[in-house]
Write a structure and sequence with these properties.
The complex is a heterodimer.
Chain A lengths: L3 H8 L2 H7 L2 H7 L2 H7 L2 H6 L3 H6 L3 H6 L3 H6 L3 H6 L3 H6 L3 H6 L3 H8 L1 H38 L22
Chain B lengths: L20 H33 L12 H22 L3 H6 L1 E5 L7 H17 L1 H8 L6 H6 L1 E5 L10 H8 L22
Antiparallel strand pairs in B: 1-2
Classes of the chains: A mainly alpha, B mainly alpha.
Amino acid sequence: MGAVVPEVVDAVDVDDVVARVDVAGVVGRVDVDGVVRRVEINDLLDRVDINALLERVDVEAVLARVDLDALLARVDLDALVSRVDVDALLARVDLDALTDRIDLEGIVARVRIGGIVARGTGEVATGTLDLFRRQIVGIDAVIIRVVNRLLGRDPDTLPEGPANLVTPVELM
Amino acid sequence: MNGGRRSGPQRSRVTGHYAGPLSRLLAFIIDSVIVVALFGIATGLVTYVASLLSSSRFDGLPRGGPGWILLFGTFAFLYFWACLTLAGRTAGKAVIGLRIVSRDGRPLTPRRAFVRTLVLPISIVSVVGLVGGVVGRERRALHDVAGRSVAVFDWGDRPAELPAPLTRWLADRPEAPLKLPDTPAGVPEGAPD
């Protein structure tokens, strides 16, 4: 028997046998769900060396295939920012060190504080002077009004000033 | 209300209008103070420098003499004449916001400024010469008549204005001496008068 088997095996054309097998039919009869249920995924994963797997991945090639613009377009930045604890973030910032790095003297030199102060002082001075002048002009107007009334003049018949200095209607 | 602004006349512009008597009086007072101060400084400096350069004590002109009066008069004349010729106004007029021009509004010529300045003391001493500055149609005093000039309001690059309350008060009276705008203006409410 032991000597016959090898001869039988040699006589069988395996390729012919396989060609006759209806693989699709065999697969169709397999209960794949049942097979999967019988597989212990955790045991399988424990046997996988993730690090070795990742080392074989070409990250640059993967990233090159990612459309970052489309990805970012799907990100809700408002929602993301609203989840940021700004207070906690600022608490971690060393403001003293930050201000030490700022060239305050350079900023002050560029701002030209002197010019701003001078301009502001000038505006205050002219404003005060005009305020004083307006009161004088007002008193003058009253005096002229009284004089015209005493003399029985009609103000509309009197010239206001030299013709080429006085416009017909002056608005403020 | 419209953004803190309101409609209605606020301030009437009087740039180029004949100046009134109070403005002119105040300008003259300021000029007088300036002339006296400048004369004092100038004579003090001259006397000091002369005393440094001379071997003997420099006493200058006798006090109370006609020499000082003539010197002061000349100094004041030069001040008024030079200022009117060069700028159309003295320092006092610049502070108050006045300008001296010819009757047609053109700048005063040196010759007319000269005559005006020459007659100015006569107007002041006579007092009567100043009456025209109050009651005249163009408010011209004697020296204005002599120099064919008039004094007008001129605040330089800013418009000369009446106070807002007075503008509103005059606007309600048809006999107002200064013609007022009859259309709304846009001066912020609460602006200084």
